[in-house]
Please model this.
Amino acid sequence: MSTAPAEAKTWRFSRAFWVANSVEILERAAWYGVFVAITLYLSRILGYTDVEAATTAGLFSAGLYLLPTFSGAWADRIGYRRALMLAFGLLTVGYGSMWVLPELLQHAGLVTYGREVTFHGLDHHWARWLFVPIMVVVMIGGSFIKAVVTGTVARETDETNRARGYAIFYAMVNIGAFSGKTVVKPLRHAMGNEGLIVLNLFAAGMTLLALVLVVLFYRSARGAGESRSAAEIWQSLVAVLRRARLLVLIFIITGFWMVQGQLYATMPKYVLRMAGEGASPSWYANVNPLVVFTTVMLVTHLMRRRSALTSMTVGMFIMPVSAFCMAAGNMIGADHILGMHPVAFMMVVGIAFQGLAENFISPRYLEYFSLQAPRGEEGLYLGFSHLHSFLSAILGFVSSGFLLEKFCPDPRILPPDVQAQRLAHLAGQAPLPEAYAHAHFIWIFFVGVAVVSAVALIVYGRVTAAIDARRAAAA
Model:
């Protein structure tokens, strides 16, 4: 009997599935376009210090990883179509407000925008904190997207095509991320710092288009999924946190994501300050999804006979190499490497290693985490498996702010003669100012974080193996 009909069926998906994945591309393009430059926007447009910008962006990111479980429960109650409409409505208002806010500040005489930005007291004025409620709107809207789109993929597939459905979803996420980051450089090249403002208009346009697509085309024939109350979700979170083995694993993996998060927390400011305004941090960030996309299947094949813990350990020991490469750019005496500033070149190398490490860690972490959950509660526990991203967003971004302020400060806060020397150095006409001589210490700090996390994972594996052996012997 021919298997062609069954094979064809595995590639058949509902209209709701394709609409959800299409709007995922738009939402990811908007989010990554904005987020890869968020600390630049906060400092260069709103006058935040490095610490203020990093802390705000860290809380922004952390909320997006904590809220989806709760917003997902609400989405089950009101229906996915209404939830998507609400989400994209909030995102459009939020991103649009990030575009409007600078115009209001300029109208108030607190700042003058152009290729360069001149502050007139905004640095110390309460009005710059108007970004916080805007951030909350975007955060809530984004949390619905994370819950509803993945939920739609689950509802609109079955056992014959679920694996391919999630493969398509993963590809859409990476296409959106790559597209959004690619837009940043042309805007900055054409408009200077003012491009960081217009970027939010691009994001608002993407989410508005997504809203229109949902209103016109999103219809799901599947019924609502099981809904849980906020109290039940909270009880589940408490249950996960009471499991010492899972809690320790979350803290260890947090170290990896603290380093990985520097792609957004530290890297954009670092390369622009050390390699000049001609650097392309948003394009360098695209090296990560490119490496993940092209090597994840190879890594999975190579490690197929190894345990999840072994695979994660390999990845954890790649991360110190990644952070050291990023540090090395400021320690190389050459003026250029393959036509690139050494800081930029070694940053790209470090990001490539980072993407490789992610392939060893991320997929197998979910597998290992699910195996530690009580039988029948795997899905419930996996809902909280990304708590490491919540913790790493706060710890990684806040530490980035303090490290930048100490070792790679914002040029605008330095004396005029130091600013002039920095520009002369970038032109090859003066030595590097003392204020930036130890900028690579930032990455050395994260080398330490990565090494400690890798060693901790080895200890974790041996301790848990010994505990399991004792339990087996006792049984």
Q: What stands out?
A: The mean pLDDT is 86.
